[in-house]
C-alpha cells in the first residue's frame, strides 16, 4: 500500500471525486509483487473450486496475503473512517473492514453478474486482481448516488425490496443491453483501488465469459444500520428472507 498517510486535502479530493463523478481511483495501490501473489492466490482458489465462481469472505480466509494486511491495516481503516466522516459528518465507530475476494468464472460467474443492488455500507472499495482484457470484461456498472443515506433501517429495506425483485432486475438488465449510456461504466485496472458510495449507488458488475476470470477484492466500511435492532432481528431470520429472494446485502461488485 503506497499511500500510508493522506492529508486532509487529499481525503477531500477523494470525496469530491466520488460525489461528482461517482467514484475515485487510487492508481498502483498494490505493488507488482503484491499483485502477483494475489493472482497466484486467485489461481489456486479457483482451481480448488473446479474453475467456477468462488468468494472468500473475511480476513481469516486470506491470511498470509496482502489482502489480510490491508483488511487489518490501521492506515487503511483510518483512511476509510476519514472519508466516511468527511461525507456523513460523523465519526464511525466501526473498528474494522468487511472484506471479500470474489472470483467470477464459469457458469457460476455469469449467474453472479448483473445483479443490481445497494450495499449496507457507506464506502465500498474494490481492488481488481484479475480482469479480462478483451471480450466481456466484467466492468463495474453503476447509477451513482441514486439514494440518500436513510435514517431508518426500514426505509433502507424498502429501497432494497424495490430493486431486489425479478421484474426490476429484468428491466435494468434489458436497459443496459439496449443502451448503457445512462450508467457509469468503469473498466477497472488490476492493482488500482476504486472507491464509491456503495450504500447510495445502485451497482453491479457486467458478465464475463465462462472461460475468462475476473477477481476483485472488495472492502466495505461503515455499516449504516449495523446497530439497528430491526436489522439484527431480520438478520437472524435472513435464511427465511433469502428464500423469498430478498438479500440483506449482496456482495456483487
Ligand atoms: Fe455491492
Keywords:
253 residues; binds fe (ii) ion; alpha+beta; three-stranded antiparallel sheet; Jelly Rolls; six-stranded antiparallel sheet; globular
Quick description:
This protein has 253 residues and is α+β, with helices and mostly antiparallel strands.
Helix and strand run: HEHEHHEHEEHHEEEEHH
Largest sheet: 6 strands, antiparallel
Q: How would you name the CATH homologous superfamily? A: q2cbj1_9rhob like domain
Based on helices, strands and strand pairing, what is the structural class? alpha+beta
- CATH class category label: Mainly Beta
Ligand inventory reads:
fe (ii) ion
Spatial order of the strands forming the largest sheet:
1-7-4-9-3-2
Rounded average pLDDT: 91
- Tell me the count of domains: 1
DSSP helical segment count: 9
**What distance lies between the first and last C-alpha atoms, to the nearest angstrom?**
21 Å
Give a description of the structure.
This protein is an alpha+beta fold and 253 residues long. The protein has one domain: Jelly Rolls, CATH 2.60.120. Helices cover 38% and strands 20% of the residues. The strands form two sheets. The chain has a six-stranded antiparallel β-sheet. α1 (8-21) packs across α4. The protein is globular and about 45 Å long. The two termini are 21 Å apart. Residues 243-248 have low confidence and may be disordered. Fe (ii) ion is lined by residues 117, 119, 124, 198, 203, 251-253.
